[in-house]
Each structure stands twice: as C-alpha cells, then as structure tokens.
Write a structure and sequence with these properties.
Largest sheet: 5 strands, parallel
Order of helices and strands: EHEHEEEHEHEHEEEEHEHHEE
Radius of gyration: 20 Å
Strand content: 15-25%
Number of helices: 8
Structural class: alpha/beta
Shape: elongated
Number of domains: 2
Helix content: 25-40%
Distance between the termini: 43 Å
CATH superfamily of the largest domain: Response regulator
CATH architecture of the largest domain: 3-Layer(aba) Sandwich
Length: about 230
C-alpha cells in the first residue's frame, strides 16, 4: 500500500482530497500546519508528499527545500493558488515533481498522484556494504557483522552524510545544517558531539579508539576509508 502525506490548511479541501485518494492501494495522512507536518515527517515515511504552499504558520515550499537539503527524495506535488509561471518555476527548482494550481479537479489530482507513485516506486532497495557494516537507509536497516543496529533518526541522518562523503572531512557546521535542517540555529553547541558519541557507541568495537567515525581536529568528522 502507498502512504501519502497531505499538508493542506483548508480542512474542507483536505478532507475532499483525502477521500479521493484513499482506497485499497493508498492511505492518506493529513496535517493542516507546518509544525504538525514537521513532527509527522520526522516520525513516519511516505511514498508521496502533497504540500500546500501558503500555510498559516509558514510555507510548504520552505518545507520542501528543507527536506531536499536533508536528502529526502520522496516525490512531491505542490498545491497553490499562485498561477504565475515564475511561481511554478520556483516550485520545480525547489525540488517539486509536479505543481497544481487551485482550483483543480480531484480526478486530475488523482491522475497526477498515480503518475508520481508509479515513477517513485523503487525496483530494489539499495544497500551499502562498508567493511563489517551493511547500511540500507531506505529501509532504515543497519547491521554490523549481521547483527541489527538500532539508530535514532538523528543518528541515521548523521551517518548518511558521513558515509556518503567517506574519506572526506565534513565540517561541523555542515553536519549541523544537514542533520538539523528544520532549525539548525536553535541546536545546542554540543548536540553534534553528543550524537557522534552515541553513534560511535553503537558502531565502533572500541568507541574510545574509533576506526571509522573519526574526529578531524579543528574541522569536524569523517568516515574513514579502510585500506
């Protein structure tokens, strides 16, 4: 079953969209504010995002930018009352896969949704074997020597940035911006250090003498490439 996330502050329209899209092959989770949307997206994974741009507490466009900056590639459709060509270009450049202006036909929306779901279905989840580890970020499955590792959302984000840049030192400021994308300016100074320490305790044979997640003094951290 496909799981669709809907962010729409017009509750009547939101209910109509949810009813039109819900069926044997799809479920819809609806939220009406940016704050609730961020909470939900931090806890759950979806196959498609439908985001209204104009919200009472912010912009769905800004939310999409933050998700893309954090590496989230979930297909996304933007909904907006703005029908200027510039607005559409801005939405697509921010990472949207489709853009629908209001008012719209629910039948057309349903067809657009189905098209995105067909395009967004991965053939096979990509695993990443690295030394004794096997990481599958899509399925949130992490193992060392075949044993499962339980990682928090924040630890997963940090690990992904590091292994995707393995062999290179990633500055602390970059890590904070990539891991805490929805409010890096409010992150406590030691939050990154604490997360690194927790991640080492789960990944390293001897966290006090890390082989993989190494500190690059004066810069940040790196995932070391083993010879």
């Amino acid at each position: 079953m496909n799981h669709i996330f809907l962010l729409e502050d017009d509750e009547t329209l939101g209910r109509g969209i949810a009813m039109a899209l819900t069926g044997p092959e799809a479920s819809v989770t609806s939220r009406s504010t940016l704050t609730r949307a961020r909470e939900t997206l931090a806890d759950d994974r979806f196959d498609l995002l439908i985001l209204d741009i104009n919200l009472p507490d912010g912009s769905g466009l800004d939310l999409l930018r933050q998700l893309r900056a954090g590496g989230d590639c979930t297909p996304a459709i933007l909904l907006t009352a703005n029908d200027l060509e510039l607005d559409e270009v801005t939405g697509l450049e921010a990472g949207a896969d489709d853009y629908i202006t209001k008012p719209f036909s629910l039948a057309v929306l349903r067809a657009r949704v189905n098209a995105q779901l067909r395009r967004g279905t991965p053939a096979v989840s990509q695993t990443m074997p690295i030394g004794p580890f096997v990481f599958d970020f899509d399925r949130m499955d992490f193992r060392r020597d075949g044993a499962a590792l339980e990682l928090s959302k924040t630890e997963q984000k940090l690990l992904r940035v590091l292994v995707e840049n393995r062999g290179h030192a990633v500055p602390r400021a970059t890590l904070v911006d990539r891991v805490w994308t929805d409010g890096a300016e409010f992150v406590e100074e030691n939050a990154l250090s604490v997360t690194v320490k927790r991640l080492r305790s789960k990944l390293e044979a001897d966290p006090g003498k890390p082989e993989y997640l190494k500190t690059v003094y004066g810069i940040g951290y790196t995932w070391a490439v083993k010879p």
